[in-house]
Design brief:
This protein folds into two domains: 3-72 and 197-333, Roll (T-fold), CATH 3.10.520; 80-175, Orthogonal Bundle (T-fold). It contains ten helices and 17 strands. The protein has helices spanning 3-9, 18-21, 51-72, 80-86, 97-112, 139-146, 175-192, 289-296, 298-306, 328-331; strands spanning 15-16, 30-37, 40-47, 93-94, 154-157, 162-165, 197-202, 205-209, 217-223, 226-236, 238-245, 250-253, 256-259, 275-280, 311-316, 322-324, 332-333. It has an eight-stranded antiparallel sheet with strand order 2-3-7-8-11-14-15-16. The protein has a four-stranded antiparallel sheet with strand order 1-9-10-17.
């Protein structure tokens, strides 16, 4: 893929909803609002009989998600996550049940994937994937930081409600495990406000309930091999479509492509599949799994999916081939 296309891809979401939503937005029963949150644009689309009530519900959902996002962010100087960094190698800290739940999920996935998923990957701090600020670390920098990456050095005590990073300099990155719970919290806020038809779209992750103008929501899937093209779309009334790919937050330098999904063992971007799309009704079945698959590779991904009958998947592999799980062809539409 040429450099121009790769640069274009850096600005494209992995999942596409705008093409299918645009005609419906003219309907007075449909309301859409957007915010920048979790490092991406987050869209909420809702349908109901009272537009004012829909707008208020969307605002409440954004507030819920912003509060939770701030509490889980390593970039927020007042977050408990940042406090854990400051106390790394010093002492355990108490954490609230929400953060403890996310940390426990991350540790379970780290063990399941034999370290392919590891939230202590936050120690790799020299990368910068922000447009106009791209930075490629040196091999020496990554080698030094790799010594601080090991999920086994995150100590959780559920009885005491504490977490502890065992070595000074360790840092967490919850980006691969926290976004879906944040979206779910937003959806539950909408539900408490009486909304029954909603889509939350946060870049590569979409949560839906109900439908749009009497039909299931449609989510388009970009082709990682050519992100200006779509592989098809998925129709869904309740559940998740979550995508991970090597063309989001990326840059090219000296003929090589770099993207933000890092291999915890090396600090370098993964060299496994180009992209993975997962479809599921249940959050626990897919949370963090896409990132783990990008690191561990297609063989591990397929064996993992065999143990998750409620999850369907589409994998675009490194050799450009496309693999789908048994139920995925039935979900895909042209």
């Amino acid at each position: 893929m040429d450099v121009h296309r790769r640069r274009l891809a850096a600005s494209l979401p992995l999942l596409v909803t705008a093409l299918y939503l645009k005609p419906a937005l003219a309907d007075p029963s449909v309301h859409q609002a957007s915010r920048n949150l979790m490092g991406t644009r987050l869209d909420i689309t809702v349908q109901g009989s009272d537009r004012r009530a829909l707008a208020a519900a969307a605002d409440a959902a954004f507030a819920t998600m912003a509060q939770l996002s701030d509490s889980l962010s390593r970039f927020n100087p007042t977050s408990r996550v940042n406090a854990l960094h400051l106390m790394a190698g010093v002492r355990p800290l108490s954490v609230d049940p929400g953060l403890m739940s996310v940390l426990q999920q991350a540790q379970h996935l780290a063990q399941l994937s034999e370290g392919a998923f590891d939230i202590t990957v936050g120690a790799y701090s020299q990368w910068n994937f922000e447009p106009g600020q791209f930075r490629l670390p040196t091999a020496a920098e990554l080698t030094a930081e790799a010594r601080l990456v090991d999920h086994r050095d995150l100590i959780l005590d559920s009885r005491q409600g504490t977490a502890y990073l065992r070595r000074r300099g360790m840092r967490l990155d919850l980006g691969g495990i926290a976004k879906l719970p944040i979206l779910e919290a937003g959806l539950q806020t909408l539900r408490r406000h009486g909304v029954r038809h909603a889509m939350l779209n946060g870049g590569g992750d979409v949560r839906v309930m109900g439908g749009l103008l009497g039909r299931p929501w449609r989510i388009g899937l970009r082709d990682p091999r050519s992100p200006s093209r779509m592989l098809g779309s998925v129709a869904l009334s309740d559940g998740w479509v979550a995508a991970s790919g090597d063309y989001e937050r990326c840059f090219d330098r000296d003929g090589r492509h770099y993207h933000h999904i890092l291999d915890p063992r090396t600090g370098w971007p993964t060299r496994g599949p180009h992209g993975i799309t997962l479809v599921s009704r249940d959050l626990p079945d897919i949370n963090g799994i896409g990132a783990a698959m990008m690191v561990a590779g297609s063989a591990w991904a397929r064996s993992s999916l065999a143990a998750r009958p409620g999850v369907d998947a589409l994998i675009v592999d490194r050799n450009q081939s496309v693999w789908t799980s048994g139920g995925m062809p039935a979900l895909l539409h042209a």
